[in-house]
């Protein structure tokens, strides 16, 4: 069900989903949050941990209005991903011998529709793998802006709140991400 509610005083009203409970919200956002975390962390188990941690932290906010849950959840998840990235860089810096580079790309999740034929499923997996690779090549802020605006379909104001930056910064990061992805994925269209 959609209702129109003001997000903050002075902001325009917009249609925001209202969930029956926080559990319903988390169930709906879970798969998308996992894909977002996996693109940022490049490791399935770390992505699962980040999403689970963000969901656990959301329990403290269950009394907040449902309209606040979306930017709050994405902000919590984003901060958790950044924390995990910093820890991984720190560990890698101290544990890896100089010059030793290990391929960080793990097997991607197969999001292909099981009802399609083998050739089409293969093409979808390849296209998805190229998209994930292109997203991983983007700077973190551009990747976040693109994922939240395009995949999650959040508006600019909500994305800005989730990312902790201005609306203009969101638009700039999104524009740069689109240009970079377009040049990297021209042959996939």
Automatic annotation (TrEMBL):
Origin superkingdom: Bacteria
Against Gene3D superfamilies, the record matches this protein to:
1.10.1740.10, Winged helix-like DNA-binding domain superfamily/Winged helix DNA-binding domain
Q: Which residues form the RNA polymerase sigma factor 70 region 4 type domain?
A: 130-181
Task: Return the PANTHER family for the record.
Answer: ECF SIGMA FACTOR (PTHR43133:SF64), RNA POLYMERASE ECF-TYPE SIGMA FACTO (PTHR43133)
Q: State what protein this is by name.
A: RNA polymerase sigma70 factor
The question of whether Transcription is a record keyword is answered with yes
- Is the keyword Transport in the record? no
GO MF term set: DNA binding; sigma factor activity
InterPro entries reported for this sequence:
RNA_pol_sigma-70-like, RNA_pol_sigma-70_dom, RNA_pol_sigma70_r4_t2, RNA_pol_sigma_r2, RNA_pol_sigma_r3/r4-like, WH-like_DNA-bd_sf
| Record-level GO BP terms | DNA-templated transcription initiation
- Write out the entry's keywords from A to Z: Sigma factor, Transcription, Transcription regulation
The record ties this protein, via SUPFAM superfamilies, to: Sigma2 domain of RNA polymerase sigma factors, Sigma3 and sigma4 domains of RNA polymerase sigma factors
Q: Which family does it belong to?
A: Belongs to the sigma-70 factor family. ECF subfamily.
Q: Which residues form a coiled coil?
A: none
């Amino acid at each position: 069900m959609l209702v129109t509610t003001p997000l903050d005083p002075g902001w325009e009203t917009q249609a925001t989903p209202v969930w029956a409970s926080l559990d319903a919200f988390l169930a709906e956002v879970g798969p998308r949050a996992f894909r977002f975390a996996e693109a940022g962390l490049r490791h399935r188990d770390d992505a699962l941990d980040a999403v689970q941690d963000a969901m656990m932290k959301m329990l403290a906010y269950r009394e907040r209005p449902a309209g606040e849950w979306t930017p709050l959840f994405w902000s919590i998840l984003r901060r958790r991903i950044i924390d995990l990235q910093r820890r991984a860089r720190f560990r890698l810096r101290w544990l890896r011998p100089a010059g030793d580079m290990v391929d960080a790309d793990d097997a991607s999740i197969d999001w292909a529709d099981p009802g399609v034929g083998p050739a089409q499923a293969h093409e979808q997996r390849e296209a998805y793998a190229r998209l994930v690779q292109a997203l991983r090549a983007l700077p973190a802020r551009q990747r976040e802006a693109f994922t939240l605006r395009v995949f999650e379909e959040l508006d600019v104001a909500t994305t800005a709140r989730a990312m902790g930056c201005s609306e203009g910064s969101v638009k700039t990061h999104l524009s740069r991400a689109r240009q970079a992805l377009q040049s990297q994925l021209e042959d996939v269209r």
